Amino acid sequence: MKIADILDKASMPIASPAYPKGPYRYIDREFLVVSYESDPDAIRAALPEPLEPDGSNTVMFEVIRMPDSAGFGDYTESGIVIPAKYHDKPVNFTQQMFLDDAPPIFGGREIWGFPKKLGHPKLSVKGATLTGHLEFDGVTIAIATMGYKYQHLLYDVEHGTQCHPDAVLKKLQKTQVNLKLIPDVDGSLAIAQLVAYEVSDVTVKGAWSGPASLQLFHHANAPVAELPMLKSLGGVHFITDLTLPYGRVMYDYLNP
């Protein structure tokens, strides 16, 4: 294999790359997001400098169903996101992620620095309840519930009018930040960066809010409960098409 052929590959292994080149398009991507009040000291401890807490003491637990993901397949993902600030710019820091499909684990870690680990999340509807369930190594570590399609955010039932999806678009298009750590061959860090990105080409197909609850359980290898749920602030459920583009370096720890 010639050098040009090697450099044209998107990923390892060379015989059958784990994922193709992006950007990556998602169709019918479905989110359950439960926002909750947490401990400010725990939030500060979870945010890598130079990120700072935004003062809201808010954390978001997410379960995302992705049935049609170009290059990555059909999978479900769950994790913890913390609203934060970077030099007074509002951002969301992804602190933990768990999912059930190998290509997006490899690609997510290697390209954007997503903190992805193998887990078993599930998003389902039974009766009048939307439920997000997260299992890690055979143990339940999180259960989120929300009234299913409780309050439509894109349609005013009282007045029979269509509402503008700006609020949902603003939430989706906020700058997202990951801490990317990749070791060198001697075990030292070859890459230590804050990586930023914004999703694009977003179409909101449906959006709902409603009452929500969340239970987090302690686990040595999946410490979601270290950001304790003190008070539920409600849930949102939305379905979108969107594109995940490549990211950019926001901060380089090795070359500050």
Automatic annotation (TrEMBL):
One matching Pfam family is ADC
User: What Gene3D superfamilies is this protein classified in?
Assistant: Acetoacetate decarboxylase-like (2.40.400.10)
- Where does the record locate the signal sequence feature? none
This one is known as Acetoacetate decarboxylase
Taxonomic classification: Bacteria, Pseudomonadati, Pseudomonadota, Alphaproteobacteria, Hyphomicrobiales
Primary gene name: adc
